[in-house]
Specification:
By secondary structure, the chain is α/β, with parallel strands linked by helices. 30% of the residues lie in helices and 22% in strands. The protein folds into 2 domains: 5-126, Tetrapyrrole methylase, N-terminal domain (Cobalt-precorrin-4 Transmethylase, domain 1); 131-225, Tetrapyrrole methylase, C-terminal domain (Methyltransferase, Cobalt-precorrin-4 Transmethylase, Domain 2, 2-Layer Sandwich). Strands 3-2-4-1-5 form a 5-stranded parallel sheet, sandwiched between helices. Strands 6-7-10-8-9 form a 5-stranded mixed sheet, with helices on one face. Helix 2 links the parallel strand 2 (32-35) and strand 3 (59-62). Helix 3 packs across helix 4 (109-118).
């Protein structure tokens, strides 16, 4: 039997119109849609559904990926997910694993990708528009100009040292640490922007650290500029 094919598909940050033509084609042609969730009630599904009305006609594979830093729990989840996808690939099916933003940026899919490539299966990354690019466009600002550096930082791992870096800092995955992140930003006196739920119906934009809601949702992205940035 012919071996199946696995695609890790970046569906963009929120607006279905920001899905690439390639991403739409791959999802449309896939036999199975894999979601990093227990049900269809996840953001990646809603984005893809907005671009492909007949999405529900597909077969779905639900792969629960726990929100934890515990390496053992994560390893077990990634192993289970890779094994579930492996069974489909051995059956000759094409699987599209949907992931928010771009598949190469803090994507859970990468852990499955490496496991299945190592096992001899075919897998490909399909890029999507990164959330920080979409957020910058929504704000009407540039991320990097002339010799300006750009740093992408997972905020829950601590940002004090990161804020001393030159250029633009993108802070992702603040989550429940948003209150601490806000205090660090106010102390540093940086120019701060935040977009929550970029491209979605409940999108919210902040243009100063003072305006940041400490209870902002998980899909909140901060862009930090040096205070004297023009």
């Amino acid at each position: 039997m012919k071996q199946g094919m696995l695609y890790g598909v970046g569906v963009g940050p929120g607006d279905p119109e920001l899905m690439t033509l390639k991403a739409v084609r791959i999802v449309r042609e896939a036999d199975v849609i894999a979601l990093p969730a227990k049900t269809k009630d996840c953001v990646a599904y809603r984005i893809a559904k907005g671009a492909l009305e007949d999405l529900d006609e597909k077969e779905f594979l639900y792969l629960h990926m726990p929100m934890t830093k515990d390496p053992e729990i994560l390893r077990e989840a990634h192993d289970r997910g890779a094994e579930a996808v492996r069974e489909l690939l051995e059956a000759g099916k094409t699987v599209a694993f949907l992931t928010l933003g771009d598949v190469t940026v803090y994507s859970t899919y990468l852990y499955l990708h490496r496991r299945l490539l190592a096992a001899g299966f075919k897998a490909e990354l399909v890029n999507g528009i990164p959330s920080f690019c979409a957020a910058a466009a929504r704000l009407g600002i540039g991320l990097a100009e002339t010799k300006e550096a750009l740093h992408v930082i997972p905020a829950t791992y601590g940002i004090r040292e990161a804020l001393s870096l030159p250029g633009t800092k993108v802070l992702m995955k603040s989550g429940k640490a948003m209150g601490q992140v806000k205090r660090e930003l106010l102390e540093a006196g940086c120019q701060v922007f935040m977009v929550e739920n970029c491209g979605m119906e409940n999108e919210r934009v902040c243009r100063s650290a003072e305006d940041i809601d400490e209870n902002a949702g998980y899909y909140s992205l901060l862009i930090v500029k040096e205070a004297d940035h023009g």
